[in-house]
Amino acid sequence: MGAAEPDLYRDTWVRYLGYANEVGESFRPLVPVPVVWASYGVATAYVTADAIDKGRRAATVSSLASVAIPGFTINRLCAASLALLGALTRWPLPLRRWTTTALGLAAIPLIITPIDRTVDFLMDSSLRKLYGPPGEPPAPH
Q1: What's any one GO cellular component for it (predicted)?
Q2: Which residues have a Cβ under 8 Å from the Cβ of 11 and sit 6 or more positions away?
Q3: What is the pTM of this model?
Q4: What is the three-class DSSP state of 31?
């Protein structure tokens, strides 16, 4: 891949498919659970396609930053929001659910960079020490 060529999975709108599960988690109060699980399927397909595209370099990159941690973060944020709105307001349930969904969706752009940086730090501090940076041969054991 040339230096001027954008990375389809990182530099284009396709990157947002990796956050489909956060959208699903945001809508959890409003949609059936199978819809939420389908959003995890979309995010997992993105991660898989990106990993295939990157080959060996992707072998050292954890899908934690793309699926598990963001999905869990939005899930807990939405669960806490729904519970707090129920305890602190007298809003009808549909309004609380829509508010929770809006909060979850609004949080997605805010969590991307901190989670990516944290996972990169964790990977740099652990697995990448063993396997080396992407594109370089593994470190001798």
Answers
A1: mitochondrion
A2: none
A3: 0.66
A4: coil
